[in-house]
Design a protein that fits this description.
By secondary structure, the protein is of the alpha+beta class. It is 29% helix and 33% strand.
Length: 163
């Protein structure tokens, strides 16, 4: 290869690289200008969380007294007599939350302490408490064992702690 051919190839590559760099810079500049001029859309989660209630959960020693506002808790204290464990939430909406889990309670200690009972939980009646929307009632239905246990927590809609 002669010197003219090498210089010509070098120049073509340099011009090509400069052109690519310039195109990239223009693309970045146009993207930045479009982003600055656009009105930012509200994130879907922010809109959803404004109306989606919490549940006041007294599960765990650190929450036993005052409770903690949570969404979709894995374990949930329903009352002083009943706790739901390993909850799989199927729905958590503005008016109702529904899930399934394993229930234990003082009303079934002789059987459910070692073998928790399967149940469906429905949380409802959201109310604003201390500036937060929280579910204020629950209904608990045991799977296939309705009427077997005598407990207030299993009889219709019951109040939930809201603070």
């Amino acid at each position: 290869m002669n010197r003219t051919s090498t210089t010509s190839t070098f120049r073509r590559r340099a011009v090509l690289a400069a052109g690519l760099a310039g195109a990239a810079a223009l693309g970045l500049s146009a993207t930045a200008q479009a982003a600055n001029g656009a009105t930012p859309a509200a994130p879907a989660k922010a809109v959803r969380t404004a109306v989606t209630p919490y549940v006041i959960n007294h599960f765990g020693e650190e929450n036993a007294d005052t409770g903690r506002a949570e969404r979709r808790p894995r374990d949930l204290v329903l009352s002083e007599f009943t706790t739901l464990h390993k909850v799989a939430w199927k729905q958590w909406g503005a008016k109702e939350a529904v899930g399934t889990g394993q229930v234990t309670g003082t009303w079934c200690l002789d059987t459910c302490l070692t073998k928790p009972l399967k149940a469906t939980i429905s949380l409802s009646d959201p109310k604003v408490v201390n500036g937060k929307r929280v579910y204020s009632a629950f209904t608990l239905k045991l799977a296939g064992q309705q009427g077997t246990y005598d407990s207030e927590d299993l009889q219709g809609k019951r109040p939930l702690a809201t603070r």
